Amino acid sequence: MSAIVITGAGSGLGRALALQYSNSFNEIILIGRNQERLQQTKDILLQSQELEVFTYTVNIQNQHEVETLCTSLFTKHDAAALINNAGVGHFGPVTSLSAEEISEMLDTNVKGTIFLTQAFIKEFTKKGTGKILNIISTAGLRGKVNESVYVASKFAVRGFTESLVKELDGTDISIAGAYMGGMDTPFWDNNEHIKDKTRLKSPAVIAEKIYRLDDGRTEIIAE
Ligand SMILES: NC(=O)c1ccc[n+]([C@@H]2O[C@H](COP(=O)([O-])OP(=O)(O)OC[C@H]3O[C@@H](n4cnc5c(N)ncnc54)[C@H](OP(=O)(O)O)[C@@H]3O)[C@@H](O)[C@H]2O)c1
Fold first, then answer.
1. CA 80 to CA 202: how far, in whole Å?
2. What is the pLDDT of residue 216?
3. Ligand 1 in contact with 90 (CB < 6 A)?
4. Which residues of the chain have pLDDT under 50?
5. Between 140 and which of 98, 135, 149, 158 could a Cys-Cys bridge form, CB atoms 3.0 to 4.6 Å apart?
6. Ligand 1 lined by 13 (C-beta under 6 Å)
């Protein structure tokens, strides 16, 4: 059975991607820090499908935790794909952002994605094959008012992804970036940046579009 690993799978887009990709994988591995939310995603997946679903709690900011998880995952599962979806955002004028908020965005969105990608590429190289999808954002395509550091973090992930597309060229390990606009998820619960979430797309619609366009291209635009 081949498995897909999805970070940030306890809510929002990660949960919706888990549901979508269960059409192609019969083993789904859900990663996040909150076990209760991961279990909720697992329960939803098991309601409708014949699947094996596993949950692992990891803080992706911690390289040691990520590497330990990765070694254990590849011992227990035939992991064929990784979706780096976990991410955080803090918004407002650049002068309003605290050091903690800046660090949380860079440590999660940038370093977390790099740690996981690095660990998985090591294992995929041993197997000779593997697939990575980085969930970025339209914030990785253009600057936005009151989103400066979040945008900086997503431009970083875009640069990282585009470089690895070139670095992995000629191997059977593929990497792609997905760029989507605003979605109605818990992402916006702890800030006032989006006043009316109801005008945003649902994560299910975006997950379906990503899944449909995930055909080997290196850039998935799902606005
Ligand atoms: N919502 C939007 O409008 C929007 C638009 C474009 C792109 N995106 C991107 O889409 C991705 C998913 O966001 P979402 O909208 O679905 O928001 P969300 O519901 O808040 O999901 C983010 C997930 O990331 C996980 N996470 C955060 N920090 C983590 C850490 N240190 N270690 C492990 N997991 C961590 C959270 O789980 P735990 O708290 O359990 O760890 C959570 O499940 C993010 O990369 C975001 O930047 C969102």
1. 27
2. 97
3. no
4. none
5. 158
6. yes
Reported as a single tens digit per residue, the pLDDT across 11-37 is 999 999 999 999 999 999 999 999 999
Does CATH place domain 2-222 in 3.40.710.10? no
The dihedral sign for the CA sequence 157, 154, 38, 209: negative
Residue (of 62, 46, 63) closest to 54 by Cα position: 46
| Closest ligand 1 atom number to CA of residue 135 | 45
Out of 11, 91, 179, mutate this one to test ligand 1's pocket (max ligand atoms within 8 Å of CB): namely 11
What are the boundaries of each domain within the chain? 2-222
37 lines ligand 1 (CB under 6 A): yes
Backbone torsions φ then ψ of 134, nearest 5 degrees: -100, 120
Unique residue bearing structure tokens 């903690």: 100
Q: Tell me the two tokens of residue 200.
A: 């945003």
Nearest CA to 85 out of 175, 33, 173, 9 is that of 9
Task: Identify which of 6, 33, 70, 202 to mutate to test ligand 1's pocket (most ligand atoms within 8 A of the CB).
Answer: 33
